[in-house]
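Pasting two entries for a bug report.
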Amino acid sequence: MARDAGPGREEPRRALQRGPQAGGGLIAADEHRRLRLEDIEDLRAYERGRQEFRARVIDLKRRRRLSVGPIVTVVFENRDTIRFQIQEMARIEKMTSDAQIQAELDVYNPLIPGPGELSATLFVELTDEASLREWLGKLVGVERALQLRLGGDAMGNGGPEVVPATPEEAHAEQLTREDATSSVHYVRFLLGPEQIERFARGPVTLAVDHPAYRHRTELPDEVRDELVSDLRP
């Protein structure tokens, strides 16, 4: 089961298929944000600075992680969180060749948001096997039920503008069956210029509006300010 490590226990996760299918349904990262081979340190160099970099990413993810109800967590990805993922995968799997690293870059670069985008990983966080089976059966389609609510009434009673999540289709088709969903989903929010300014002003609510799971949480100012940097060029 792939799941995000909580604060202080960040661990890499094998998330997407390798190969041409990996980026299906996602927009490629903006050229100046995407990671290249020269951005990934070799194993010895990374080990020397790993403790400091890991601490920085843990702090960064604290400002990018939100709980939506009791069992759903959403982490908003950026260039640093994805670089950490690649560095940790290379470390664990002892990758030493450019070809191996490039394969990881091809898989994970599409998760880096471009201007006007937020890229997020949704986790169903359950460790009990029976509960996991129960909820994964109930939450089919949860990746399409995630939404941002911009301004107005966070309850959705005519006030806020709703921006729905766009799932990464190749991953959804691979792991979601008719009778069960996956514990990990990759989604993207696309915002226009006026929506970005409304997001920056706040309030902004992250909600799951699913028949089996309706929860919401307002983004703290610290989180909203952090994400504005993703949305703007």
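Entry 2 (this is the one that rendered wrong in the viewer):
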Amino acid sequence: MPSRNRGYASPLTQVAGVGPGMRGSEVVVAISERTAPWWQRVVPVTGLVLGALALAALVVPGFRHQLALSASHRTDAYVELYFARTPAGTQQVCTTSGGRADVRFAVTSHLAGEEDLAYDVTVGDEERSGTVTVRPGASSVVLESLPRPSGPYDVRVQLFGSDQQLQAHCPGARS
């Protein structure tokens, strides 16, 4: 007797077609439910992802620029600004000598060549500007001595042309 659902098989059965010697009869063959090997699932997905990345690299200029930056090894040029340290490793902040506030700071260069950097030091209401010469890979320590306010005061060091600055709040002269 022919099956009514020819061509529609359950996941565990398969209907074999009519062939020579079977004259109008159907044979139902049980098959096991197997998943494809992992690589047969991964390879097409990987291909799609790589294709999408290639398309994005061709179409989107910003993506192309980021891809070029990621593939190249170029160090960024920058300088470090920090309060100077003693040989023991402690930072020298709020130091005084003879009624003056001593501000020691260091600038380490990661620039391509030697440069003169302008800075501004503020102690309370007093301000002083200057320049420091930095060489690639080297640190330069700067000492500025300004009049010390009688009460608590703020110390600020800023490099011109950059957003780097140091700030400290100092207790002032003790009576």
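Dev reply: Rendering is fixed now. As a check, the viewer should reflect this: The mean pLDDT is 82.
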